[in-house]
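Section 3.1: Structural characterization of target chains.
Under the original work plan, the team committed to producing a structural model for every single-chain target entering the pipeline before any wet-lab resources were allocated. The record below documents one such target. The sequence was received from the expression subgroup and is listed exactly as submitted; it comprises 387 residues.
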Amino acid sequence: MRNFSLSRVLLPGVSVLDRYIFTQLLLPFLFGVGAFSSIVLAIGGLFDLVRKIAEVGLPITVAIEVMALKMPLFVVYSFPMSLLLAGMMTYGRFSADSEMIAFRSCGLSVYRLILPAVVLSVIVTGITFVFSESIVPIANQKAATTLSQALKEDKPTFNTDNIVRPIFKEVDRDGKKEQVLEWLFYAEKFDGKTMTGLTIIDRSQQDKGLSKIINAQSAVLDPIKNTWDFYNGTVYLISPNASVSNFFNFKRQGLQLPSSPLDFAAVDKNPEDMSIGEAMNYADEIKLSGDRKKIVSLAVKIQSKLAFPFVCLVFGLMGSAMGIRPQRTGKATSFGVSVLLIFGYYLLMFVCAAFGQAEIISPFLAGWLPNFIGVAIGGWLVAQAAK
């Protein structure tokens, strides 16, 4: 009675039936968040932190701080699983206690009965999106920084040796878009300000029959002019027949390049630590490199990040559809079936992502196909239960 009164305060203007089903869903959902978060916590980092405490002397306070910073990620992962469990337990109990028979005798359809579960799934989908975009990336970055500082593993945010950066441009040939090399940049060393041992191939004006090869001992960026200053080098001019038509030595030579030294030497970023907007901006950056494998991989990860919040809706639909079928399942059975379904679903996600990175399917399908399949299965289960 107390829970029912509370539901009137929390859900004003909502029918008695919807308030009742919603409150019955809420408790197992919260139980699932706690249980699944604990499981993901143990698998996702607890054992590794305990090993670091024992082997390398990581302070316990730092380990606790790191785990607290990673909790938003673990909670986000637990949301879809918890909706699946809540649907199976709640509607399974309705069936086991003959409440489903009472609902149906009042003329309520299966579609009407699972509506509160769908609404809850939509709400949690929105919460998951907000967490994934505004909280998880910041917390993950802070956790990685805190752990690195505690272990004295501070690393530069740029590569320091053997920096190779190709830059491509898109051209139209016979009505087809193709990528051709525009610049090829190589530097032996970089200390954050000065690059040394440089070789650059400039093909930006090849359509005019001009190409250059630049060798220089060192180079720095002039931030005011936004140009590179090269020192003690040679410029070779290449004719259209690939022979050296001219060359000249220089002590200092300015050159306009498409990126700054830090852009050329940037360490690959982890898309898991970015929001969708940041990942899309990063995708625009790496398109210049022409690295097809990296571009496709990032495109797949972006689509997966976009699709992930909607897993909540898929699991909410599947859980309520399975629970509403006439059967007698206890909490332990519901939990076990949930784990199996979760394992199968995430295995499907992994396979689709692998197919996407191998370019067997498009990045869009790689991210969204598991959701489409899950919605189709959930819809079929609901239709079967409604018969």
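The radius of gyration is 29 Å.
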